[in-house]
Amino acid sequence: MKLYKHSICILLLATLAIMSCEDKETPATSGLVDLDFYAVYDDQPLVMLDFYPYAFDENINFGTSDFYFSDCYLSDNNGNTQQLVDIELIDFTNQNKDLTGALAPISVSDIAIEPGKYTSLTFSVGVNEALNATRPEEYTPDNPLSLAGHYWTAWDSYIFAKFQGQLTKQDSADVSWLFHTGKDDVFRTFTYPIDLEVDGNESTISLTLDHKQLFVLESDSYMDIRSKPTNHNPQDLEPLIQITENMEHAISITIE
Amino acid sequence: MNNSTLYIILFGVFILTCYSCEEETGNDESNDLISLEDIEYNPIAFEVDSPPGYPLLVSPDDNPLTEDGINLGRHLFYDPILSVDSTMSCASCHDLQLSFTDASATSIGVDGLSGMRNSMSLVNIGYNYRGLFWDGRVQTLEEQALLPIEDPIELHHSWTDLVDQLRRHEDYPRLFRKAFGITNTEGITKELAAKAIAQFERILISGGNSKYNKVKYLNTDVFTDSELHGEDLFIDTGDSDVIDAECSHCHNGGLFMGDDFFNNGLDSTADYTNLLDLGRGGVTGFDVDKGKFKAPTLRNITITAPYMHDGRFNTLDEVIEHYNSGGHPAPNVDQNIKMLNLSDYDKQALLDFLSTLTDTTYKYPELVSNPHN
After folding, report:
1. Dihedral (C-alpha) B98, B99, B105, B108: value to the nearest 10 degrees?
2. ipTM score of the complex?
3. Which residue of B has its CA nearest to A233?
4. Residue B130 Cα, gap to closest chain A Cα (Å)
5. Once rounded to an integer, what is the mean pLDDT over residues B108-129?
6. Which residues pair with A73 in a beta bridge?
7. Which residue of B has its CA nearest to A147?
8. If we measure between CA atoms, which residue out of B218, B199, B197 comes closest to residue B209?
9. Minimal Cα–Cα distance from A156 to chain B, Å?
10. Domain B211-355: CATH class, spelled out
11. Is the pLDDT of residue B3 over 80?
């Protein structure tokens, strides 16, 4: 009996020793990537409820800013891809509550990826058609798709993004504005050229959303939010598509 | 590996073995120790069947639902032993007849003191994953259940004394053994008591027999015109003829509940300094959170008066009037709080719709009532 116990003990130790040797021998070529998200307004960190100059002599603030970031992957020139993120809710409302929070990123950390030379980054804003046919009650609470507050029953769609705040011409806020996007027609996928070599290093891909650029119009003018300050209407998707498409250029990407 | 390493390891194993033996024979210093190993421990998993449209019910990995766990929790929840003078239990402020609320604006504890907050319904509480209490200061039912016992405005007992009482009690050692397999009375702890209460709370699930459920899921009933109009007001359908009352922005999903904290315009404030209750801001310390509260479930709302975190509104008419008025200004009032211009017909319709959410039945009726009666 005694001998038996000892042999088990020794066997266990040996296994451990072998395992740790194996670890050391693994070639250190795969890498880790962090995705860091920042919210700014015209290059200033965006702090919830702080006012920033908008067009039309208006000042604007944000009380809510979040969006689903999904199907994010890296590609190389040979068509190989590396999945980074399935789906996350990027929630600046709860991150950018003060300047300290605004300066710190929302981080999706330590994503393991194969070594390679990646030349593009692709992601979508919103919930893809297949997932958008599901409902929050199908998910466990740790899944971002379980958030009932991001599902709009009357649309049969997830709310892809929420941007809300106030507009003022004097010191006091006098108009509330709100854009909630959603429905399959509003789902958009963007691809950005990048230069990322993964060779065992840790890299950080920073995505910075300039909230002023959400409202830019093609002619470099800005949306007159005051004249139509609210939209969460599936029958009137135009402004919601505009804002979603604007996100492509409103998001800038840097790699370290 | 050389010999000396082997000896060190063998020595380690020896010490460990001795140590574990000591634990098994128990601690002789405690005179009151009573072995419970003769009592059968045969945990039977309890599978929950949620009503349609509800979220998934998820228990923490270290506290799965069992029949005996729920039974122990039920006994504790209703037992005045929980309070310092054995006069009050959880049920004193969470009354089954009132959808587990207490009908007072702010609850009164064992010493006759009242706090600033209105008791909250515990029906369907297991589906709350985004913070408990009006300010979300606690995450799990296990953590929450520890708090009322020692709170001076609630049960004002001490856990040390209560655990002692439970260990000496004629029933509880057996109930704890059956629920958690403890080997002796020393195994009774506040953590296990809290786990059992949490298990009991997780099965306080509506029966799924509200008019709303009958119309939406069972197809055994239809909405009246007024209820239908109320639903249109509540859940904006995009129909431009009907006012969008914006309610479902904050009270959503199968439980008509929020998964975040909002300021719904109850108090005027310019800089939050005049607020009596900072709500979420009292927990996070951020200005932007001050005056924000959890948007509670509207299931059973007709039987949980008075309303809001401080019970300021006695009737749902007052609540609807509040929303209709656009509320009071504060920097962080949500954009969905605005003057609605509801007609009398609209207001009645909203009320009628809210009434369809009432369900006095329970999924497990035989398990929810006071077992001490």
Report:
1. 80
2. 0.87
3. B238
4. 9
5. 94
6. A83, A122
7. B259
8. B218
9. 11
10. mainly alpha
11. no
